[in-house]
Design a protein that fits this description.
The chain is α+β, with helices and mostly antiparallel strands. It has 16 helices and 24 strands. Helix 1 packs across helix 6, helix 9 crosses helix 14 and helix 10 runs antiparallel to helix 12. It holds the Pfam family FGGY_C.
């Protein structure tokens, strides 16, 4: 039995697999996000407790011994811990917006672009650079008390194993890692005013760190590998490793990834290059803030249940009777395929005749247009896989295929946990059949007529977006 652990933003999961990649059991537990005034935080003890609980549940349901475990989780944010791995303060989430003023300043004075040209990382308010700089200005005592500024999965690995603080090249890619040398760029640390906090950055394990469990959640002695974080883990779990092939993760974050062997740091600074376990191979990532959280907000506001979405999409025509949604609902604005910290969502074309179905379809279409924008910017030329919670809606998958104008290789199940296991197996030299583990569950073809309609709609979306970005800057 192989166990994958995926420490998500709102849900912690553990999945057990047999040697062929078949899911044997899945356990999950929700975790809370604290949102107030643009500040988005999480209780680290709650998150870690959820990890231990789901591991205990999933291993208790499958009697086979655990061969090894792979760990992945949400990226970015700042998870400050002391020497024992205990929280110094609540974790600042990747969704946090408190550092938008610093990002605005760095956009204006050229620091933002300089960092991108050196690392391939377009900073946003919820990534470690701005958050650490904000904490250094406003909560220096918290940094003084911390041993390390970790990423989410690193905190969990530290606690599960007792191993020293460590991260991997994928998490470290935003924003301090030089993608060519796969080490921290100390000049970037200096540019962000954090040279005196350099010691908080966890050592980068290349390849990923390994250790044995201490007996919390997993049997004592179980081998664990730490990393990569959820975006590259999903790429592994979906079989996206050949240059030009892409992955769209329809989750809380709408992440678009394209495998590449070319490092191009020109063009508009946006997204990031995620270093992978293979030197010279990267994922060109456009992890947009927009995602299922936008649809969840619309569903909650309109009183629509999740099980009603497919019926509403089927009963509402393309174009949603003129209702349009720019789905940028995150408190920290947008980070891909452009950075606009003050961008906000817009809803237009609504009248007394508009229905809940119109609002739901317009939101799904808006998210689809955002995905197309990201995939084009990331350089998609090959096949496209899709995974995440959004794949549970077959109607939304058909809509996405139409909006994107290309077939979708749908990969269902716990794709991040699956990728974490594949990464762990590679690290430990355990031979698993990756093609069998990553076989798609369905292929959704676009309808030519609807695809042509949405090509025009996409052009209109880009025009509205340009106007909204202009307003956000004034």
């Amino acid at each position: 039995m192989y166990v994958g652990i995926d420490v998500g933003t709102s849900m912690v999961k553990a999945a057990a697999f047999d040697a062929t990649g078949r899911e044997l059991a899945v356990a999950s537990r929700p975790v809370e996000l604290s949102l107030h005034g643009g500040v988005v935080e999480q209780d680290m003890e709650e998150v870690y407790g959820a990890v231990v609980a789901v591991l205990g549940e999933v291993t208790g349901r499958v009697p086979e011994p655990v061969e090894l475990a792979g760990l992945t989780g949400q990226g970015d944010g700042v998870w400050l811990v002391d020497g024992e791995g205990r929280p110094v303060r609540p974790a600042a989430s990747w969704m946090d917006g408190r550092a938008h003023g610093l990002v605005d300043r760095w956009l204006a004075d050229g620091t933002f672009e300089t960092v991108f040209r050196r690392t391939g990382s377009a900073m946003f308010p919820g990534c470690p650079g701005p958050l650490l700089a904000w904490l250094d200005r406003h909560e220096p005592k918290a940094l003084d008390a911390a041993k390390a500024a970790l990423y989410c999965k690193d905190m969990v690995f530290h606690r599960l194993t007792g191993a020293g603080p460590a991260t991997d090249v994928s998490d470290a890619s935003m924003p301090f890692l030089d993608p060519r040398t796969r080490t921290y760029d100390n000049r970037v640390v200096e540019l962000l005013g954090l040279a005196h906090r350099r010691g908080l950055l966890a050592p980068v394990s290349d390849p990923v760190a390994t250790a044995e469990a201490r007996g919390e959640g997993l049997p004592s002695g179980t081998r664990i590998a730490n990393g990569p974080y959820d975006l590259p883990a999903c790429a592994l779990g979906a079989g996206v490793t050949s240059p030009g092939d892409g992955l769209l993760i329809v989750g809380t974050c709408l992440a678009s990834l394209v495998a590449t062997t070319e490092l191009d740091l020109s063009g508009e600074p946006a997204g990031l290059y995620i270093s992978t376990d293979r030197p010279g191979h990267w994922l060109r990532a456009m992890p947009a803030m927009v995602g299922t959280a936008a649809l969840d907000w619309v569903l909650s506001t309109t009183g629509v249940r999740h099980d009603e979405v497919d019926g509403l999409l089927a009963g509402t025509p393309p174009g949603a009777h003129g209702v349009r949604v720019l789905p940028y609902f995150a408190p920290s604005g947008e980070r891909a395929p452009f950075v606009e910290p003050r961008l906000r969502a817009e809803l237009t074309g609504v009248s007394l005749e508009s229905t809940r179905g119109d609002l739901v379809r317009a939101t799904c279409e808006g998210i689809g247009y955002a995905a197309r924008h990201c995939l084009e910017a990331a350089g998609l030329t090959g096949s496209l896989a899709v995974c995440g919670g959004g794949t549970r809606s077959s109607a939304w998958m058909r809509l996405l295929a139409d909006v994107l104008g290309r077939p979708l290789r749908v990969v269902e199940g716990e794709v991040g946990a699956r990728g974490a296991v594949l990464a762990a197996a590679e690290r430990y030299g355990v031979g698993l059949d990756a093609p069998a583990w990553t076989k798609p569950t369905a292929v959704v073809e676009p309808d030519p007529g609807r695809a042509a309609f949405y090509t025009k709609g996409y052009a209109e979306h880009l025009d509205r977006l340009g106007q909204a970005r202009d307003r956000a800057r004034t």
